[in-house]
Amino acid sequence: MTPERRQRLEAVLSKRQNDLTVVLENVADPHNISAAMRSCDAVGVQEIYVLNTKIPRHKKWGAKSSSSAAKWLTIHQFTDAAACFEAIRKKYDRIFTTHLESNAVTLYTLNLTQKVALVFGNEHAGVSDEVRALADGNFIIPQVGMIRSLNISVACAVCLYEAFRQKQQAGNYDTQKLSMQERNLLWEQWAQENTESSQ
Amino acid sequence: MTPERRQRLEAVLSKRQNDLTVVLENVADPHNISAAMRSCDAVGVQEIYVLNTKIPRHKKWGAKSSSSAAKWLTIHQFTDAAACFEAIRKKYDRIFTTHLESNAVTLYTLNLTQKVALVFGNEHAGVSDEVRALADGNFIIPQVGMIRSLNISVACAVCLYEAFRQKQQAGNYDTQKLSMQERNLLWEQWAQENTESSQ
Q: Could you count the other beta carbons within 10 Å of the beta carbon of residue B4?
């Protein structure tokens, strides 16, 4: 590994956040998943939960492509909602779903500097009742237009960047948030990815 | 037109903003353009400038599709950058480009409650030197990840929703911003679209 590459990996690691994650429930289109992963990487979200209870396990994330964010993320795959949320609860204090309903609050009222998981649902059906029951509440991205829906990848990016804005204001990117253990584990994985990429 | 439909159109018109616009310079992929339009519609941006100096005029915006935002927007097409920016200058006080360079400020330091135009460039080449020279400054969407670029449609949505957040805080959605003349003109166009859609 070149010194420049090492420096780059370390710089990115130092910004990774261990208190924000994204959950994709039965998101069917691989483009939406890879776009969500790219947004996660961009704001420093390290792990993502892919929960497929109604659709088959995804075959690939485009991980072979050099522009894929998947290889820099920790991806947890589940086929059982209860097991998935049990795992999430161990690390995150609040779980919010994006689900259009009258008691939903808007994105901009959420405190995204706490340990929080944001759940996005299927392109057509949205977040399931089962998953909503496992979460702490719903939120919406406000809209004032004629078309009343946003693409998943757009919705995910808007939420992640609102989190980024709040977390930056709160100083979350000023010091390393990962524990040394988390950091060292990722460093080993990334160094391996880096070697494979350059072959 | 049903009373419900009339009410819906009027509600959307009452949120339209006449002090924020998006300029797409040589954005080649029609999906990126239609996604940008959908985000514009979602936050109440009424007009969009499509400037194609290096690529052919786009044939369609997916305007036939009922889910297309294009029919609810005012689309200005230009093939000459100087003419395009002359038109923009008549309505907007500040023009900012998204261009990666060291003197760029970040999105979150921009005042997006002023009369402002945001310029997004070609997927590969970015905003051209010609257009940068016609603008007031550059900004970047901050990123802390391994992949160092965002898709245009994602970048556009993140910027528009940051504008939405600022404008909502400033009360920009509380009272109608369009002049009666602007409103009436749009009402006529939309009523026509509505008739065509329902046929």
A: 8
Global pTM reads 0.94
Q: Do B69 and A147 touch (CB under 8 A)?
A: yes
- Shortest distance between the Cα of B69 and any Cα of chain A, in A, equals 6
Q: Which residues of A120-137 are buried (b: 16+ CB within 10 A; e: fewer)?
A: bbbeeebbbeebbebbee
**B105-106 sheet: strands from edge to edge:** B74-78, B47-51, B20-25, B116-120, B94-98, B137-140, B105-106
Pairing relationship of beta strands B105-106 and B74-78 according to DSSP bridges = unpaired
Residue B180 in contact with partner chain A when CB distance is under 8 A: no
Q: Tell whether B3 lies on the interface with A, counting CB pairs under 8 A.
A: no
Is A20:A45 a contact under the CB 8 Å cutoff?
Answer: yes
Return d(Cα B32, Cα B36) in angstroms, integer. Answer: 6
Spell out the alpha helix ranges (H) of chain B.
3-15, 30-43, 81-91, 129-134, 152-169, 180-198
In the A/B pair of chains, how many CB contacts fall below 8 A? Answer: 109
A92-122 tens-digit pLDDT: 999 999 987 767 899 999 999 999 999 999 9
C-alpha separations of A96 from A85, A89, B187 in Å? 12, 12, 38
Cα distance between residue B16 and residue B176, in whole Å: 7
Residue whose tokens read 């060292």: A184
A162: nearest CA partner in chain B: B162
Report the complex ipTM. Answer: 0.93
